[in-house]
């Protein structure tokens, strides 16, 4: 019994499916080579190969479809060679992307065993700013308590006092070439005042 050949529309649909699967296969292998996927998509590669074999055994009555299949087959051969070449480099351990990931992982392991983890710079900055904010809040609270004890007004804005102290601290650091400034609350003539002075252990040489 003669084999029933598919219609032109069916052949066109199979060519479309083959082209789409080939594009998907390329994306899957690129993800694998980049390390986004840890498992090689071997099954997908075999399925696309099977599609090409089936199409290779198909008789295309249309010259346009024959030409399209030849172009798609050439593209698949090129893609298959590209995949094989990268897999060969991976097996030898010289694939650029895989070697970079291996070196990075090795460096991370070495850092973890050699020293405790160091917080990222942005975390250190946030921690330092938080410590500074806490110190300003404490001096502000002591200042308000002293003003209350002296019968002075206590309706002061924290942000206003803090910003004034920061400006004063910058002036003192620049004038006395010191790393930090010490603020003290004192009472003179029945009035609470804030005094700033260079921290005695933070003077810079020179």
Overall residue-averaged pLDDT value: 81
Shape: rod-shaped
> What level of helicity do the residues show?
55-70%
Strand content: 5-15%
SS-based structural class? mainly alpha
**Low-pLDDT runs:** none
Radius of gyration: 37 Å
Give the beta-strand count. Answer: 2
- Helix count, per DSSP? 6
Q: Summarize the helix and strand pattern as letters.
A: HHHHHHEE
Q: Could you describe the largest sheet, including whether it forms a barrel?
A: 2 strands, antiparallel
Placed side by side, the strands forming the largest sheet appear as 1-2
Number of domains: 2
**Separation of termini?**
103 Å
Task: Please give a structural write-up.
The protein is mainly alpha-helical and 206 residues long. The chain has 2 domains: 8-114; 121-198, no CATH class. It has 6 helices and 2 strands, in the order H-H-H-H-H-H-E-E. It has helices at 8-34, 42-56, 63-92, 96-114, 121-149, 158-176; strands at 181-188, 191-198. The chain is rod-shaped and about 110 Å long. The model has no long low-confidence stretch (mean pLDDT 81).
